[in-house]
Amino acid sequence: MPAAQSLEDLAYAAYLQEHGEPLEPDGNYTEVHLSDVELEDVRAGHATFIESAFSGVVLGGGSLERSRFSDVWISRNRWVGLRLADTEWLDVSVLDSSLAGIEAYGSRLRRVVFQRCKIDTLNLRGSTIADVEFDGCDLTELDCGGATLTNVTFAGSTLRRARFTGAKLKKVDFRGARELDVAAGAESLRGAIVDDRQLLELAPVLAASLGIEVK
């Protein structure tokens, strides 16, 4: 799915209103634009964001647990140590952003694009992830343990120490990934698509998961 590359490309750009107030629990944010703000220890669980944009936003710690993001555009953001457990993401684009130490287990992501992002320690354990693109991203410690992944791609991305223990994969395409390093859960890669080079790189962890000793 093509992601809008600028704010002006959004279908709802003309309706956006600048939002300078703190985010609140159970808040309903429709057609709002958070721009170039830094929020520490945000407490806005159960909030709803619809046709909204985050540009140049820094979120340091806190929680947006059980929030909903629908048709949301996120660009040049830096989110660190943020709790996003049990959130719902639909038609969301995340561009040129840095995410670190994000707890998003139990979430539901559908038609989400991560493009040119640096993602370090993203916990998606037990999540449902469908029609999601990681395009040109640098991912370290991606944990999809127990998650269900359907039609997920990693074109031009680097995966280091990824974990898929107990995950269920269907049409998960790793072809085009610059690096594929699986630290745990190689036995759960049934349903993945890899190229010849990646298969050779995965051979040691696949053998270990099957109890095969290679001498």
UniProtKB/TrEMBL annotation:
It holds the Pfam family Pentapeptide_4. It comes from the Bacteria. SUPFAM superfamilies: Pentapeptide repeat-like. This is Pentapeptide repeat-containing protein.
